[in-house]
Specification:
- Chain A: Keywords: ATP-binding, Nucleotide-binding.
- Chain A: Pfam families: ABC_tran.
- Chain A: GO terms for molecular function: ATP binding; ATP hydrolysis activity.
- Chain A: This is D-xylose transport system ATP-binding protein.
- The complex is a heterodimer of chains A (about 270) and B (about 425).
- In chain A, a hairpin with a 2-residue loop joins strand 9 and strand 10.
- Chain A has two domains: about 180 residues, P-loop containing nucleotide triphosphate hydrolases (Rossmann fold, 3-Layer(aba) Sandwich), CATH 3.40.50; about 70 residues, no CATH class.
- Chain A has about 270 residues and is of the alpha/beta class.
- Chain A is globular and about 60 Å long.
- The two termini of chain A are about 30 Å apart.
- Chain B has about 425 residues and is mainly alpha-helical.
- Chain B has two domains: about 300 residues, ABC transporter involved in vitamin B12 uptake, BtuC, CATH 1.10.3470; about 60 residues, no CATH class.
- Helices cover about 75% and strands about 0% of the residues of chain B.
- Chain B contains 16 helices and two strands.
- Chain B has a two-stranded antiparallel ribbon with strand order 1-2.
- The two termini of chain B are about 35 Å apart.
- Chains A and B meet through helix 3 and helix 5 of A and helix 8, helix 11 and helix 12 of B.
């Protein structure tokens, strides 16, 4: 069941520590008083229903939004993430749900966007080699890196976006619904990749609606509900416990449906 | 040229079985046809347009294709070309600058007033005109960045304000004649390259293609990537050299190659380098393609806009100075009429998309040749400006239609 954050987390100093993060849009408070820790070599899943504030939180960490109040500590020091480039230099890279790729540019240009090698005489050869290596690490199936993104499928675009997030060798990788548009094989690849990231000591923040994926790879599962912390679970927690925390009660439409399906399966 | 098989196993970019490996000349030709068919027209419409224009006008009036008429055409093209080069930058971002005509007019007025009337040295006067352009560009960019004022609106009001400023500083006399003996006017009207220099300069692009082509081949081979075959590079370099030397020889039958046009071409080449080979250029395309993606990639979108608008307006000012040199006068009419439309039309005809994220510096060069050919041909036919305006308008409409048809085709072929 939900336990105190501190008792679950490893004793080491976290890479990222959020305390009391609040974000209001006019009269609507999208986030209120959010606490979150992320350690090196740990996958933290961020789950919650639509409108729970997951994407808002991600965007604050990515420097797209500024929090209304609250503190962010990175590597033990207070940090302000006032722009996307600040987040990148700090070592937080993000794969957004809408991927953020430029359709008119090719794969290499997208991978290196904003981080081009030798800015005054672009080193296309080195960038292309590095692009193939990155895509190779992801076991990506992309036929040509010199085609514009417009010619790629949804899954291929997701792969490019994930490869892109690794380019700067960040400390923390945030993945917003990384498997939503992927096929079975590619989903497995991405889950493998997430574990590889953890093994290499990155902190990973994973947002997903897919409970099986979340429980398969996460070390901790932080639940948001209506913009507030609503418990932290280990991967041993049952699906029902997590769903209950997401919905806010044990008796809700999702839990009842799960119960019916379980009965059916037993028959 | 013999095609020896690659020593390394399989190049990185040929590993996927779904990729057709286009090698040699036939491969290059096939890839080119594929591109055209999918709507990636490149310079094809311009080439077809130029051939059509030449055939039509030279049958109506044989003077059109005479060397000296073409020399005149190149003199005229340089002035509008600079304005168009600036427009390309703005269009790449998916923005528009409707005030380039007025900006060029104001720049010519500034040079006239400062240099002729007030005795300021010419370089300083030109510098002042360019700074005025940069300042105006900064104003547009600030209006867009700070107040999210659409560039369509801000530059439309700029059009009127700049025109007013032009009339104000010219005062009641309305026009200032520039001295014929001055360098500026000689540059704009008679300075022609010596034959040996023009022939020599026409060799440079071919040599450049060879040098960079072979250097790139070596670098890609060393990095285990596929590369163009030597025959493709040789044929390309040969074709370009033949074409340029032929053109120079033909122009040298008349007065020769204008210095002013060469300066313009060099600026286009420099801009093309900046757009395709620098981080700044890549950022320009990214902002034009997907502004949110660019912002999230850490590109300083506001700064990119600022540089684009400042460069765009400065180039418009430079075009104004050049056209003042061409006409040996700074008048109230400078930059009015069809200057605006011609500059924008040239950029679009050359293949710069009005929707942002697609285009090249060459577009300004190629497009301005088409536009100036039309206007020159119509002038030779003694058509009134009323008819010229209508015909130029129709040509712009056709160019935009071709652009959006090609865009739809690209979309259905999975190309942006």
């Amino acid at each position: 069941m939900a336990v105190n954050d501190a008792s679950l987390a490893p004793a080491r100093e976290p890479i990222l520590r959020l305390r009391g993060i609040t974000k209001t849009f006019g009269a609507v408070s999208a986030l209120s008083d959010i606490d979150l820790d992320v350690h090196a070599g740990e996958v933290v899943a961020l789950v919650g229903d639509n409108g729970a504030g997951k994407s808002t939180l991600i965007k604050i960490l990515a420097g797209v939004f500024q929090p209304t109040s609250g503190t962010i500590e990175f590597m033990g020091r207070p940090a302000s993430i006032d722009s996307p480039s600040a987040a990148l230099t700090l070592g937080i890279s993000t794969v957004f749900q809408d991927l953020s790729l430029c359709e008119n540019l090719d794969v290499v240009a997208n991978l290196f966007l904003g981080q081009e090698l030798s800015p005054w005489a672009l080193d296309e050869v080195q960038m292309e080699v590095r692009a193939w290596q990155l895509l190779g690490e992801l076991a990506a199936r992309i036929p040509s890196v010199r085609e514009p993104i417009a010619s790629l499928s949804g899954g291929q675009r997701q792969t490019v976006a994930i490869a892109r997030s690794l380019l700067l060798e960040p400390k923390i990788v945030m993945l917003d619904e990384p498997t939503a548009a992927l096929g079975v094989a590619q989903t497995a690849e991405v889950l493998n990749l997430i574990e590889r990231l953890r093994d290499r000591g990155y902190g990973v923040i994973l947002i997903s609606h897919n409970m099986d994926n979340v429980r398969a790879v996460s070390d901790r599962i932080a639940v948001l509900r209506l913009g507030r912390n609503n418990g932290t679970f280990t991967r041993d927690a049952t699906r029902e416990q997590i769903v209950a925390a997401i919905m806010g009660a044990d008796d809700n439409v999702a839990a009842r449906r799960d119960a019916i399906e379980r009965t059916r399966a037993q028959q | 040229m013999s095609m020896k098989p690659d020593a390394s196993p399989i190049a990185y970019d040929r590993a996927d079985a779904r990729v057709r490996a286009d090698t040699g000349l036939a491969g290059a030709a096939r890839a080119f046809l594929d591109r055209i068919r999918s709507g990636d027209l490149g310079i094809l419409p311009v080439v077809v347009g130029l051939i059509l224009i030449s055939v039509v006008f030279s049958t109506l009036n044989p003077v059109f294709l005479l060397p000296n008429n073409l020399v005149n055409l190149l003199f005229d093209a340089a002035a509008v070309g600079f304005i168009s080069l600036g427009i390309v930058l703005i269009l790449l971002l998916g923005e528009i600058d409707l005030s380039v005509g007025s900006m060029s007019g104001l720049a010519s007025a500034l040079v006239g007033v400062l240099w002729v009337n007030m005795g300021v040295p010419l370089p300083l006067a030109i510098l002042a005109a360019l700074s005025a352009g940069a300042a105006m560009g900064a104003v547009y960019a600030t209006l867009l960045n700070r107040f999210t004022m659409p560039s369509f609106v801000s530059t439309l009001s700029g059009l009127l304000a700049l025109l007013g400023m032009q009339l104000y500083i010219l005062g009641p006399t309305g026009s200032i004649n520039l001295p014929y003996s001055s360098f500026l006017v000689r540059f704009g009207q008679i300075l022609i390259m010596p034959d040996w220099m023009s022939y020599g300069l026409a060799l440079v692009p071919g040599l450049g293609i060879l040098w960079f082509g072979f250097r790139q081949m070596r670098a890609r081979a060393a990095a285990n990537l596929s590369h163009a075959s030597a025959s493709v590079v040789l044929v390309k370099a040969g074709a370009v050299t033949l074409l340029l030397e032929g053109a120079v020889a033909y122009l040298n039958l008349g007065r020769g190659v204008p210095f002013m046009f060469v300066v313009f071409v060099l600026c286009v080449a420099a801009m093309q380098y900046a757009l395709t080979r620098t981080k700044w250029g890549r950022s320009m395309f990214a902002v034009g393609g997907n502004i949110e993606a660019a912002r999230r990639a850490g590109i300083k979108v506001k700064r990119i806009r600022l540089t684009a608008f400042m460069l765009g307006s400065s180039l418009a000012a430079l075009g104004g100075v050049f056209s003042a040199a061409r006409l040996a006068t700074a008048s109230q009419q400078a930059g009015t009429g069809d200057v605006n439309l011609n500059a924008i039309a040239a950029a679009v005809i050359g293949g710069t998309s009005l929707f942002g994220g697609r285009g090249s510096a060459w577009a300004a060069l190629l497009g301005v040749l088409v536009i100036q050919s039309i206007s020159n041909g119509l002038t030779l036919l003694n058509l009134s400006s009323s008819l010229r305006y209508m015909i130029t308008g129709a040509v712009l409409a056709i160019a935009v239609i071709i652009d959006s048809l090609a865009r739809q085709s690209r979309a259905s072929h999975g190309r942006a």
